[in-house]
Design brief:
Elements (H helix, E strand, L loop, with lengths): L1 H18 L7 H16 L5 H39 L1
Main location: membrane
Pfam families: SecE
GO molecular function, one term: protein transmembrane transporter activity
């Protein structure tokens, strides 16, 4: 009984796949671009003032992080140079 049901289900799936119309060659790219355009309309974009603030914050934190790495690097160099004098 179970084998019969599986065969019937798989036959239905095959019929469904055959009944679906295949898109014309080349139309897939146009469909894709149309869908991309629709999705872009759904996006809530950041306004210019917020974008400027966020950009300044990112630049500031990047600068601070870079200076921190430089500071740690100089400390490690000095420590290794001091150890080299003992050896």
């Amino acid at each position: 009984m179970i084998k019969m049901e599986k065969a019937t289900v798989s036959a239905k799936i095959m019929d469904d796949k055959r009944s679906q119309s295949k898109p014309m060659a080349g139309s897939g790219a146009f469909n894709f671009l149309g869908e991309v355009k629709q999705e872009f309309k759904k996006i809530s974009w950041t306004d210019k003032d917020e974008l400027k603030v966020y950009t300044k914050v990112v630049v500031a934190f990047t600068f601070i992080f870079g200076m921190s790495v430089l500071f740690v690097d100089v400390i490690i160099q000095q420590a290794l140079a001091g150890l080299n004098g003992f050896i």
